Amino acid sequence: MEYEDILRRWDIIPIRLLGKSDLGCVYLTYTLDKQIIAVKMFKQGTYDRKQLEAADITKTDLNSIFLLRYLQYNDESIYPILCMEFANMKTLDIVAKQPHIPLPTSTLRALMRQILEGISVFHAAGMIHRDIKCENILLHSPPDSGRVYVKISDFGQSRKIDMISELTQIAGTPLYKAPELFQIPVRQTQKIDIYSIGVTFYLLIAHQYPVVQPNLDEYQKSIKQMKCIERPSEIKDDVLWDLLSKLLEFDPDKRITADQALRHPYFTSPQSQSDVSKEQQDLASQAFIAELQFMKNVPEYEKEPTFIVPESLQIDIILVNLIRNVEKTPNNCNKAKQLGIIDLILNILSTIPPKRVNFLFVKVMALFINLDSVLKNNNQLQQQFIKLMNKFLDPEVQQILINQLLFVYEIVTTFGNSSELELPHPFREQMQNEGQLNKLIEIFQYNQYQDKYINYYAACIVGHLFKATPLPSEFGPGIVNMIKDYSKLPNLFYSHVKHQIFSDLSENINNHQILLENNTLKLVNDFLLINDNLPDYNNSAIILLCNLFQIKKDIGEEKELEQEQEQEIQTKQGKESINKCEQESESNISQGEDQDEDEQFALALKLSQELQENNGDGQQ
């Protein structure tokens, strides 16, 4: 019997399949009492009765909007079913794995607060989740609410604290596992959930795991050798890092609880209370007004701005899905053009203020341009983007400026990739004439920014703009050295950026000397040896090496050819001079037979000297 037939027998109407695995499947469904719910169906023998008991606890004992609500289950059928709330957005994983989504600090804080609030309720009921990770935290935006809520889900490994002693298996996803799970005796307490939440938050900010290893054995070995998690360069806020370090504390006895984390200054300080967006403030005000008008109790999480994740996050996720679909099936680019998506995004970029521009709009356009040669070579489109960059280059507000520099960087690199080898960047001359290039150089050279990434991204943009063009000595060395310094950071992204920019610069031999300083060749070779399994990052390094070798080789061959041609010309001229001298010599000797011997000797000596000089020129 098909899954869908079984659902209909239970008066559940299947709408579409949401996911499928070896253990079963999940359907989006419609019930007779007009509810849209998700139904998980297990294959016989693939579930543990205790999973359903845990689900039962979440259904009856826990009351939190931040926990996915289980509605009912039935295990009498061949295929047991579990009915649950439907979360209409993706999981937190889509945000964590996309470095293109720079979360505003106010949105990040609200997401973290919601997750901690949910796990606090879960722990207060005497439960341990045992598999907290980004993939198990769903996102839901109730229609017309303007809000997004997290939903901690997948309680398949969850247990009551008093049941833990019966367990022999250690649950969890390796890169999220707490250090005490690798010790003997193993300690499974609620603190393992706290550590996993710390990893989740780390991923949201740095877009990489705090400990990266290819398998469980290597991860276990690294964890045993470490004493603590090192602070990544992406986390600049000292208060935020203090919170994360307490969540990621290796000693479970010293690791804070969810309740203690919610009382941390990152959530309670005056600075955090004032860090709210207009969207958050407006939604909170609406909740207060509703409470006064209708005389009903409105939950704190709807009235408190720092709890509110605005619906704009949903736009991010929609755009990321668009990017993924186009990357997976490039033909979707044509569909997007036909549907008017490209024109719509261009109109949005042109009309809204720079501070409200979503970076993903630019990322989507960059993807379309890279996949479509007609768009890439469209002069009108290029002019539109050059005009847009004037809006983005406003150095007044640092937090906004760094985002806008990311927009400019994406545009410049996208169109720079379209120009052929040894041809200059198509934007450079116009940007120089219209003043944008000078603006970028001023931003790079300004040393009063607290956030030095502003200077770095300005340097990267200038580096790309000088593709196949000599870097001026006034600022060129500074640009190159800053890019080299940032490439020493542990994140491979910065090495990748260095190789991309240097490959552009290396298309002009006048830049080779400064590029090759400080063991550049050795560093590039070492990078290739260490990261031989990362083709996306390796390609730019290989192109750089090829440019350094081939362009120098081509110019060397041209010089050799010029020298050979010059030598042939000089040899020919030398031979002509010798012939002329010999003719003059014969003529003068015949005419001067009646001259005395002294005059003839002087003439012969002069001719001999001229011959020697001409022979010397020919050899040179």
UniProtKB/TrEMBL annotation:
Keyword Kinase assigned: yes
Q: Which InterPro entries match?
A: ARM-type_fold (IPR016024), Atg1-like (IPR045269), Kinase-like_dom_sf (IPR011009), Prot_kinase_dom (IPR000719), Ser/Thr_kinase_AS (IPR008271), UIM_dom (IPR003903)
Is this entry keyworded Transmembrane helix?
A: no
**Annotated ranges, domain Protein kinase:** 12-267
GO molecular function, a single term: ATP binding
| Any one GO CC term of the record | autophagosome
Biased composition, Basic and acidic residues: where in the chain?
573-583
Which processes are annotated in GO (biological process)?
autophagosome assembly; regulation of autophagy
Query: What PROSITE patterns has UniProt attached to this entry?
Result: PROTEIN_KINASE_DOM, PROTEIN_KINASE_ST, UIM
Q: Where is this region: Disordered?
A: 562-600
Q: Which residues form the signal peptide?
A: none
Could you list this entry's UniProt keywords, alphabetically sorted: ATP-binding, Kinase, Nucleotide-binding, Transferase
The protein here is known as Protein kinase domain-containing protein
